[in-house]
Amino acid sequence: MSDFGGILGEAAGLLVALDPDLMEIIGLSLRITLVSLVIACFIGLPVGALAGAFAFPGRSALIVLLNTLMGLPPVVVGLIAYLILSASGPLGPLGLLYTPVAMIIAQTILITPIVAALTRQVVEDLHLEYAEQFASMQAGKIRRILELMKDARYSLLTAVLAGFGRAISEVGAVIIVGGNINHVTRVMTTAIALETSKGNLQLALALGIVLLLLAVMINAGVMALRAFAERSALA
Amino acid sequence: MFGSSTALPSRRGFFPSIGLYPLLAALALSILMGLSSLAFAQENDSPFIIVQSTTSTRNSGLFEHLLPLFQADTGIEVRVVAVGTGQALRNAKNGDGDVLLTHSRIDEERFVAEGHGVERFDVMYNDFIIVGPARDPAGIEGQDDAPSALSMIADTKRPFASRGDDSGTHKAELRLWRMAGVDVQAASGRWYRETGSGMGTTLNIAVGMDAYALTDRATWIAFGNKGNHRILVQGDPRLFNQYGIILVNPDRHPGVKAKQGRRFVDWILSSTGQEAIASYRIDGQPLFFPNAKR
Questions:
Q1: If you classify domain B48-125+242-290 with CATH, what class do you get?
Q2: Do B23 and A225 touch (CB under 8 A)?
Q3: Which residue of A has its CA nearest to B227?
Q4: What is the CATH number of domain A27-201?
């Protein structure tokens, strides 16, 4: 095992070399994560906003459920998705097991509750602030939701980023339903697990650093976007 | 001030209409990338089969050597899911796989007898070895009797890292402990450590805690984190490690790609496939020895 300088050097080397295998793995990681994230947002943002802004029967139970599901163990999600997608499972005939689509399904199950639960908290807090205003405006329900989400959009961005972080770093679920098949379902995290099991600890850690850099770049990009949006809003 | 519903001084606060576009653009971009990903998943129409196999065959690099040769001969892509033999057999029993390449003969024969597989063939062999710290505190080095080496580890209560995952290697290890007359379950959690993990992870743990371990030779030769560990016991005929190949039964599991799967089985057992196995070496050492009988 060599020093961290060597590992950083190897990570830099991996990126600079633009190794086609590595680029393929990074590309697949990003695509799977982003698709799951988009689906999770389509479900999680509205569900969270409704639970945050309105009182309805079963709301407390829904909130407890969402908060609990934030801690869903990835391995359990992977197993459930495997049982559903397996050839002997209910969706077996679709032949989705060991494909990127299976990984997207597992990750969507995993991160939708995160997006929904964090959205709920953000919208609920803002709703308390705006309640009086809404009442005086006699704002309708849809308008309330839209305005809350618009004004909370930067906080909601954090909820979305939390979902992104969970999805891109997760290994337990995608390795079960994806199978870590070379050139088909191998992503950054499963590649790291594989290299670790081969005893190539330095390469595994270098891949980990590449993954971390990727996450830093995406978070920084979102921050820049936000700053830009705020400036144009003030202008 | 909010009395009138027509005049809303704070309206601008509610509708900061500019600035949303970059976010929308980002969202649209994500959706686009998403669709391209789905397209990516669908576009791969070329024939492929799924082989459920063991970590030793993958971690040793054997598949990366064999599969391009097979694909060049036949045009069939092979997707390998590498798990322990126990899990590979269970996945195949669910119909999730076309061919099995594993190393636990008794379980493989039961798999065929239960109707899940068509027929089992010997493919190749190598051997198990006992590795441990170079200073060898249990003094087993050079033993040519594997069970008695294990007895010495048990007597001195030196740590032993077991797969503990129902894999082919784990089953072989348990058979050796039975021959040695040692009840490892009674020692589990003390000197006997069940990692519940694959071979590589178990070796990482063994190196980390100065423990002995049973491993197949191929994984060991290709393993990159040997630390101060080395081979201490080898050569006992009871350490023989036979690999077998089975086509999953298409009558039992209709999703099985029998035609392509059969071509893979035939190719592995043919002289071309057998020579390809024999020619795979790391540092001049052969990792697997072909022994198909036809």
A1: alpha beta
A2: yes
A3: A1
A4: 1.10.3720.10
